[in-house]
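Input record (one chain):
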Amino acid sequence: MAAQPFDQLEGHIWYNGAFVPWKDAKLHVLSHGLHYASAVFEGERAYGGEIFKLREHTERLHYSAELLGFEIPYSIQEIDDASNELLKMQGFDDAYVRPIAWRGSEMMGVSAQHNRINLAIAIWQWPSYFKPEERLKGIRLDIAKYRRPDPATIPCKSKAAGLYMICTLSKHAAEDKGYADAMMLDWRGQVAEATGANVFFINDGIIHTPTPDCFLDGITRRTVIDLAKKRGYQVVERVIMPEEMTDFEECFLTGTAAEVTPVSEIGPYRFAVGEITSNLMRDYMQAVQPAKHAAE
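The corresponding structure, as predicted from the sequence alone:
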């Protein structure tokens, strides 16, 4: 059975200050954000009726907009309040939250300084980003053809819609070959990230992760680094070359959608789902669902 199209889901979407029926949350085909990718967004998860690290995500949404040269006409507090109210209205305890801001249709062309800035928030139920059976044994990644660009060519610290085009192409290509995702290198040939998640490697009890100098320093990434340090693990942020993957014993991805997901394979490189990865998976779920785990 085909999945229900996202424009046909039930409930409401917060759209420019009002709660509108889901099917009525529309924009014009000549919106600047559609043609020129002048849009920024966030991905958030709610657990037990609370949106995890909502304020950090909303602050990044505002920062992303600034990097794209526009100002969101709603304060951080207003966006947080709207997100929390919408979550209650949708009636979900566990859900995915997607705020997005974009330039409208007042001007059509590369130059669009006076276009209205629109903001919408949608919330729906979305299970694990990867298939549960794959997560348990570690997902398989291809090595992407496309690379993360030089920061001199893109606003790499913005969670901007246009920066995900090569991610979509890379994930599609990987899935066509039977992989769950793809590992992307950067323009220098260094290990960067997966198409929508940061990456960590483990060797001799030490956790290694690429320095986020041309891709997002994810909120989940920072959360997991903090959790690892609380356990006493050493975390090293550094340049990682692809050939180094031969020496790593474990590997995992982090992201709002991916949460903490073990990796068993990246191209010709193999990894085990080991103790450190398993510990951090549990620690992360305890961090995002403290009430549930306190009751167990």
